[in-house]
Amino acid sequence: MKKITIILAALFFGAFAANAQNEPAQFSIRPSAGINIATYGGEDIDDVDPRVGMIAGVEAELGLTYNFGLSLGLNYAQFGGSRKMAEDGAKYSLDVKTNYITMPVLANIYLCKGLALKAGIQAGYYLNGDASVSAGNSSGRITIAAKLDDYAEKIAFGIPVGLSYEFKGLTVDARYYYGLNKAFDEDLYKAYDEYLSGKVYNRGLSITLGYRISF
User: pTM of the prediction?
Assistant: First the structure.
């Protein structure tokens, strides 16, 4: 029985290696585009509705073994979220939209042919953003908008994890981003303390379609 188990394990790992997507020293680039379903997380942050934005860019990957590779990406990604409140017969809402350049560095583990598990680190640079506060009741409604450039943290760090599946070069990638540092400084909380409290962090689920070009 023990010998049979060893043989089956050897066959499994042999098939695993044979079906891996990468080849050692293989270099490829993958342009892609899709949607980023973004929201905020953190201390005392509830009932945040997501912002559905876009994400687009390119990733370069180097195969180190038959089932492992490293990739470096450069993307334009939209983040944000919205929050609604009601008090004393009035309704309030806060809508936040921010845009970043992101650079994910990922380890790609190929579980079988075409299917890869991805995890790593990501740095982002804040480009621009705005927030709008809307308040109103049965008598009317007023909206005030403001730029976020003076409040946003310029550098964002986080952890991306996900899965991708490739068939004949066409790749579907689903990836979750967990921000590690706060998205805004304390002055924003002072300005919008009725709507935001504590520290908020970027969160996002991106789904992209890309195409691998190997060299």
Answer: 0.82
Distance CA 96, CA 83 (A): 9
List beta partners, residue 138: none
Find all residues with CB under 8 Å of 112, minimum gap 6, and list them: 16, 19, 20
- 131/93 Cα distance (integer angstroms): 10
Single-letter residue type at 62? L
- Per the prediction, the chain carries an average pLDDT of 84
Q: Which amino acid is at 10?
A: A
Query: Locate tokens 């982002």: which residue?
Result: 124
Tokens 């650079």: give the residue: 103
Convert the pLDDT of each residue in 166-210 to its tens digit: 999 999 999 999 999 999 887 666 655 555 556 789 999 999 999
CA distance 68 to 21: 9
Q: Look at residues 168, 159, 161 and name the one whose alpha carbon lies nearest to residue 212.
A: 168
Class of domain 2-214 as given by CATH: mainly beta
3-state SS assignment for residue 65: strand
Q: Which of residues 66 and 135 earns the better pLDDT score?
A: 66
